[in-house]
Design a protein that fits this description.
338 residues; alpha/beta; Rossmann fold; Zinc Finger, Delta Prime, domain 3; 3 domains; five-stranded parallel sheet; two-stranded parallel sheet; 10% strand
Length: 338
């Protein structure tokens, strides 16, 4: 099955539509783990697992033993489940190809290949697909995909969250899905009885992000050229550098102004066109770009991107002897807004 997605696989597995081989590989471990957990729940009952489920670990397993186990028939069950974890540590991984060419229909073989991918052009991968198996690549997500993921996560649990709150969490955690899930679960259990809405106040209380002093509010103030508000937030960041690392703020600002520069080449700079050009899912996120288009010209934005590169270097010690991250950020924001 080529081009399998997490959602399509999740649906098929939940409906017990199994394939003989699942090669789950890539940099983002979260989706690999979730699909493996789901397979372990759906393929066998708890009683069947005693005789029909085996787990191998790549670092201390032999390919021939895995193949021999996969070729067995299940005992008093429709399937047997074989899970190979940390398969990237397996010696002679390519020897599995002899099994991939002719897998057992009664075996569900799950291979977790994390922190990298097997070259899809290799016959060992192509034979998985030829035999009706699945090759799923779990790629790291871009940060602009994370707010949508947060909303979907809560939506499945009948919990609401607005765009601002989802962006606050994204700016704080980034695109590490495993760390993100920990924060979302923390918010979920923090909801009071009868409440089904995650608010910025709840986030401030339980995650440690200030609802008024965060990268989202700083970016909004800069886009609107609200100098007083931007200075107030930057002062707060300087006093609370541990919770507001400048490297994250520089990244947020760089992404914003890089995207804003693209908007100047649009024939029609409407909100809808900006959303389409930047692949934004909501008009909420387009508002800062509309403000930026009104308050900054293209030449100024190019200067700002240059400032950001310079100050990012200074924050890492390049041409900087004594300025603190807070002082650097204060100077940067001044240059951006004047």
């Amino acid at each position: 099955m080529a081009n399998a997605t997490f959602d399509s696989l999740k649906k098929d597995i939940s409906n017990r539509n199994f394939v003989p081989i699942y090669l789950l590989m890539g940099e983002e471990a979260y989706f690999i783990d979730k699909l493996t957990e789901l397979l372990s729940e759906k393929v066998l009952t708890e009683i069947e697992k005693d005789f029909n489920m085996l787990t191998f670990y790549g670092v201390d397993s032999d390919v021939n033993n895995i193949i021999a186990a996969a070729r067995r028939f299940p005992m008093m069950a429709e399937y047997q489940l074989i899970i190979v974890k940390e398969a990237q540590e397996l010696n002679n991984f390519e020897l599995l190809d002899s099994y991939f060419k002719k897998p057992m229909k009664t075996t569900v073989l799950v291979i977790n290949y994390k922190h990298g991918s097997v070259d899809k052009r290799l016959m060992v991968v192509r034979n998985i697909e030829k035999s009706g198996g699945v090759v799923f690549e779990s790629k790291k997500w871009y940060e602009n995909q994370i707010p949508g993921f947060i909303k979907n996560y809560f939506s499945e649990k009948n919990i609401k969250i607005d765009e601002k709150s989802a962006q606050m969490i994204t700016d704080f955690v980034g695109n590490d899905i495993s760390k993100l899930i920990q924060q979302l679960q923390k918010l979920e259990v923090s909801l009071s009885a009868g409440s089904n809405t995650v608010t910025s106040e709840l986030i401030e209380k339980n995650v440690g992000i200030s609802k008024d002093y965060n990268n989202f509010e700083l970016l909004k103030a800069i886009a609107e050229k609200n100098i007083l508000k931007a200075q107030t937030i930057v002062d707060y960041f300087g006093k609370n550098q541990k919770d507001n690392p400048s490297v994250v703020t520089f990244s947020v600002l760089f992404n914003y102004f890089s995207n804003l520069l693209e908007c100047y080449w649009l024939p029609q700079k409407s909100e809808q066109n900006v959303m389409s050009a930047l692949n934004l899912k909501s008009s909420f996120f387009a508002r800062n770009y509309m403000s930026g288009l009104r308050n900054y010209n293209a030449v100024k934005v190019m200067d700002i991107i240059s400032y950001l590169r310079t100050f990012d270097g200074k924050s890492k010690g390049i041409d900087n002897i004594s300025a603190s991250p807070g002082e650097l950020l204060k100077e940067l924001v001044y240059k951006i807004m004047h």
